Amino acid sequence: RLFTEADGSPAGPGFEDDGRPPVDTRGIANDYTAGGVQRSFRESLARMGLERVHALRIHDPNDNNLNRGEKEDEVAICLSEGGACEGLRELRSRGMIDHVGLGMNSNKEPHMGVPDEIIRLIQGAPTGTFDSALLAGGWNLLTQAGLPCLVECERRGIPVFIAGVFASGLLTGGKTYAYQEAPPEMREKARAWRKLVERYDVQLPAAAIAFAALPKIVSRVVLGFATKEQVDESLVSLKASASVPLQIFYE
Q1: How many helices (H) and strands (E) does the chain have?
Q2: How far apart are CA 236 and CA 238, in angstroms?
Q3: Residues 168 and 137 sit within 8 Å (Cβ to Cβ)
Q4: 208, 213, 217, 220: CA torsion to nearest 10
Q5: How far apart are CA 48 and CA 59, in angstroms?
Q6: Nearest partner of 223 among 207, 211, 238, judged by Cα
């Protein structure tokens, strides 16, 4: 994505500083071309005050708040000559980054998630394009809609990072699922899981982390935090996840 000030100039650093225009006055545009990748990379480094970063990911083509595929086919743009895949491979070959990945929602909800598009992107890119795939929301205790994506990554030897482990909050006692108010059927699933793990004297967040890490192709489990308390709680759950009995998942 490209971020611009209200006058069309690149959004600069310190946008939360006193005297700066409100964040919501910035322009946001998608650009999945190689040129867009290079510009986004250059401007992001300037905003962060860094000379380089380790990794870049293609983020949510055909599954974002500006376009869900009805305006233009962003996956096709990524895969085309002069597209984002080519631009990222070039940055990596020049030593400007070390790692090329994708980051997409692998669940399948009416408002988000395009597992078929993830598979299309992986299959359409030249072998060796992706060093990892960050798959969000589609592999947790409440939905396994992202399983075909995991299978495709396994087939191609692309390590997977699993995010959305807690289904955006419902599995830690929250009320949201996939970033919206949880529907009744998902609340019922969460209650059923909670009753099951309690029989094994296991906390539900620990079971959720253990489940996320089950597939062999998963090399990372990604947890999100908003507060210090959540960091502390997640570290406890992470440690406990190593002792979750596999029998839970057979039931």
Answers
A1: 9, 9
A2: 5
A3: yes
A4: 100
A5: 19
A6: 238
User: What is the band of 16 on the pLDDT scale with cuts at 50, 70, 90?
Assistant: confident
Nearest-angstrom CA–CA distance, 164 and 148: 17
Which pLDDT band holds residue 23 (cuts at 50, 70, 90)? confident
In terms of pTM, does the model score above 0.90? Answer: yes
Q: What's the DSSP call for residue 64? A: B
Least confident range of 12-26, 53-67, 93-107: 12-26
Distance CA 136, CA 139 (A): 7
Decide which of 150 and 26 is more confident: 150
Helices 34-48 and 84-93, packing angle to 10 deg? 60
Phi, then psi, of 117 in degrees rounded to 5: -75, -30
Return the beta strands (E) in the chain as ranges.
2-4, 27-29, 55-59, 99-105, 132-136, 160-163, 176-177, 180-181, 218-221
Say how far apart CA 251 and CA 249 lie, in whole Å. Answer: 5
